[in-house]
Amino acid sequence: MAFSFLQCKVPRGAVVSLYALCVAGFALLTAAGNPPALGISEHSVLESRPVSLQEASQARPVSFPLKVSANNRYLIDSAGNPFFLTGDAAWSLIAQLTREDVDFYLGDRQARGFNAILMNLIENKFASNAPANAYGDEPFLRKGNFGTPNEAYFRHAEWVIKRAAEHGMLVLLAPCYSGAGDGAEGWYREMQASGVEKLREYGRFLGMRFGHYQNILWVENGDLNPPERDLVQAVAQGLYETEPNALQTSHNSTGTAGADLWPQAAWLTLNNVYTWGPVSTEARNQYLHTPTMPFILIESQYENGPDITTRRLRGQAYQALLTGASGQVFGNSPIWYFDGVDFFHAPPGWRKALDSEGSRSMARLTDLFRRLRWQDLVPDVNNRFLVKGQSDGQLRNVAARSADGSMAVIYLSDDRQITLKMGPLAGRQVRAVWWDPVGGGSFQAQLSPFIAGDTERFRPNRNNAGGDHDWVLLLEAEDNDDK
Hints:
- By secondary structure, the protein is α/β, with parallel strands linked by helices.
- The protein has helices spanning 18-31, 93-96, 99-111, 151-166, 188-194, 196-210, 229-242, 258-261, 279-287, 310-321, 350-353, 357-371; strands at 42-43, 51-52, 67-68, 75-76, 82-83, 85-89, 116-120, 170-174, 216-221, 247-251, 271-274, 295-299, 327-330, 377-379, 386-388, 398-402, 407-412, 418-421, 429-435, 441-444, 450-451, 455-458, 471-478.
- The strands form 5 sheets. Strands 2, 14, 16, 17, 19, 20, 21 and 23 form an 8-stranded antiparallel β-sheet that branches. A 6-stranded parallel β-sheet has the order 10-9-8-7-6-13.
- α10 (310-321) runs parallel beside α12.
- It starts with 17 loop residues before the first helix and ends in a 5-residue tail after the last strand.
- It holds the Pfam family Apiosidase.
- This is DUF4038 domain-containing protein.
- Residues 69-375 form the Apiosidase-like catalytic domain.
């Protein structure tokens, strides 16, 4: 049989696929006799040398524009293919980088499997010469006046958007980042000075200026729950009037989802989660949000942040994706501001940071999910599948399985025993594989494939390739007579 949850596009001569690994493991196990019916049992990783998976699989070329799927759970491209959003925070890119540096950055991120970048159209603080770009062009002919756009500045921004499209990347583009706290870091004070009508006209200008680029997701607001919401609404509405099919979301204060501030807004087409705390809690809330909207993890902790480990970065991504998110955005200081400022005590050198441990972990994650039918996964938000060993907070273990019971994915944040109530998998033969989110190697669980009982226990019982304790458990059910 074929591993239906894999979509491996492995060239001839490539290293062994997960399917081939499991077939080899199955042969070793059956050579010693058929596995017995186990009832309640504990499975641990085979003590054998790991076999590496094929390095990051090539993403299917994206056919823009994107739109919301029929079930309102994720985005699809114009060919109907699900779009798994893997983003990188590049907030200051347009203002800080030269065109040569932009090309270097985009080439690196594309090679690592990223297909989206989050950035400001106009920067107010975190670039070397903000609000001017690397060529000295400011966004407005009169400082802070949204009614006086500078064509030279927006021509360079257009070039960046076009280059991103050529790299197959979606641009999550903030038209005027409001700014955290009281808005001093962003444009909120200038927005107040400009007023609603001028901001609506600015939104119309953006819709006409960039409407023919189909790789844009507009990110309204920015780190703020604004006292005067009509200012943010004006920009979004102006865009909607000139480009009604454009995707838009809203990046609010931490703990406030995109849809929380704009529950009835016609322009809001994509929801999001933004939190510095445990992601699974916020993701569960948005998965259960009515009406149903697709959502992504738009921002959480950044690499090189205080006391932030690479395991924490992996955990927040997996918590989002296995609790219903259709994508996630990774962040790294100093990449997001490209060494433009020195406020954050991160190691300097954004080029060197491109090959960080966090970036490599995100490449592994992307490789795994692009091999899965991730769009069919249903989060276990009520703990009916992962019934014991969930833990909580940042160490929350999360699980999802397909509605037809053919596959399941579980992320374990640490080395602990979990108990799964097999449900639709029970009575079928089940293959179980431990997958390393750091090194990409994988092992068959002991006694796999096995006949599932009502309840099964699993524990990795070893460190991953990075010396951490987090693992991914992959389960696939098959008919008992399927050899």
